[in-house]
Amino acid sequence: MDQGRRTVWAQQHDALNLQPVAGRNYEPAALCGSESAALILFLMRLPEPNPAVVQAVHAAVAWFRKTAVYGKAYQRGTDGRRLLAADGAGPIWSRFYEIGTGRAIFGDRDKSIHDDVNEISAERRNGYSWYNAAPQEALDRFAEWSASHPLPAAKAVGR
To answer: What is the pLDDT of residues 77-108, one digit of tens each?
Structure first.
């Protein structure tokens, strides 16, 4: 949950209180696109998901649709990987999103957090998957899954 609304999950959660926690120096406590996509694929394989699971899947899919990036690609250039404008590209998603704002964030080895992946050190920019298309598979499978698992009418996504 983020500000009382269901979203996606963090990359790591505290084992006792289940709150998002940081991992390595460049992995902040944040919402995480790729790990959440894998979790959604798992939840959609449950043979008889309960209403809470159905709501969680619908909420995550809504979040993925809201945070999709179009018209940009994370690709190699002469000075390493960068997020660049690319007509017709996407969707892609950032690895991390700030809890509370939903903005994409990027960590560096010195634990600094940046708004722009192009601002972090070359070593981190080139050595980590900051953007990827992992949620697309979950969105593709959701189209069929949601036909037999509609969101209960009495409850809105995110509540």
So the answer is: 888 899 999 999 999 999 999 999 999 999 99
Q: In the structure encoding, which two tokens stand for residue 111, read together? A: 């634990």
Gyration radius (Cα) of the chain, Å: 16
Q: pTM of the full predicted structure?
A: 0.87
What's the CA gap between 26 and 4, in Å, rounded? 26
Place of tokens 């394989």: 45
Closest CA to 9 of 70, 57, 51, 66: 57
52 CB-near residues (< 8 Å, 6+ apart):
none
User: Tokens for 138?
Assistant: 């979950």
Each residue's pLDDT tens digit, 1-16: 455 678 999 999 999 9
